[in-house]
Design goal:
The chain has two helices and 28 strands. With about 400 residues, it is mainly beta. Strands 3-25-24-23-22 form a five-stranded mixed sheet, with no helix packed on it. Strands 9, 10, 11, 12 and 13 form a five-stranded antiparallel sheet that branches. Strands 4-28-27-26 form a four-stranded antiparallel sheet. The N and C termini lie far apart (about 90 Å).
Amino acid sequence: MKLIKVITLAMLVGILFSCATKPVTQQLKPKVIGATKKAVVLEYTETRTDFLVKPVYQTGRTGLLSGDADDPAVWVHPTDPSKSLIFGVDKEDGLWVWDFTGKELTHIDAGGKPGNVDVRTGLMLGGKEVDIVALNLRKVHFQDVSKIAVFAINPDYTSGDDVLTVLADGTSVNTELQKGTYGFGLYKNPKTNLIYAFENASTGPISQYLIEDDGTGKGIKLTHVRDLEYGGETCEGMVADDELGFFYVAEEDFGVHKYYADPEMSTAPINSFALAEDGYSRDREGISLFNYPDGTGYFIVVDQGDASNQIASILRIYEREGDNKFVKTVAILDMNGKPMWDEDGVDSLYTSVLPGFPNGIVIGHDGDHSTYTIYDWKDIAGSELNIYSE
């Protein structure tokens, strides 16, 4: 019996040694992205579109540990465009701030787990107008609630230390959102100049809140004003067309729903687009508005693809006006010319003042590397979409 055990042990050691010293063969299976744990092929050929666009700049990686970036937003400085900012959320490590070349200025713990981020100008606070960046906190530190976090943007900032001032964070009162808040976006009514937040708890009602001075001139409070009629499944991407008065919600598995943004208007959906016939691979994730001053422009939807089935993320572009007719598909790439995987948020803006971007800008999200990529609208538009001329 002892002899049999010795022989068996020797054979096992021999097998292990053989496996350890055998030359490693080339791995043909998909790799696994650390942030998303989804398989992605090492080599990929895009067949859904001929329009492949590389970024001009790229931010550094978010996250103090693994990185879990999600959604970007853009702010244009009112007098010095070179001091304009890009904001991005990391779902584990708060709000991040970069300049327009992707240089990091600061990152801030907002007091909870961020969801989405948005920017608006001209909130009345203490008798003065301030520009704000806001995000929904899906979970607040040490509390079983969800809240909004709002920061005033300092146009006279000299460094990352003085670029933002807290108006509300996870410790603030009268700032509660629906528990488990998921999607989020801002809207400014051009007639009243009041600023509102929209949010939902994944499949719950889409609620609208007024953001206003809490009476101190140094903080804000929320007042619930209405709920939109929404009977769909999970939705996250949200964006408002302030000038035309519409609010859009991306139902991940179905399409994009269009509503009136003014709280005095109907709560019923107006129409839906970005449907299955447009070729979506999986979720409709981030959505963004590229708005020209004449009321025209474009609406951008992230087709997240399906990394587990070796399908990369792309952008599907629609007309801003009317029934939002589909016009073009674009595959945005990373700085190495590789496909984007598990893209969540997107932001875009028409402006002619940003240095190096006279036709406007698009900010993408690279789920693989937890970074944000910065594109020239002219490269996105090509010869198929309009370039606005002032």
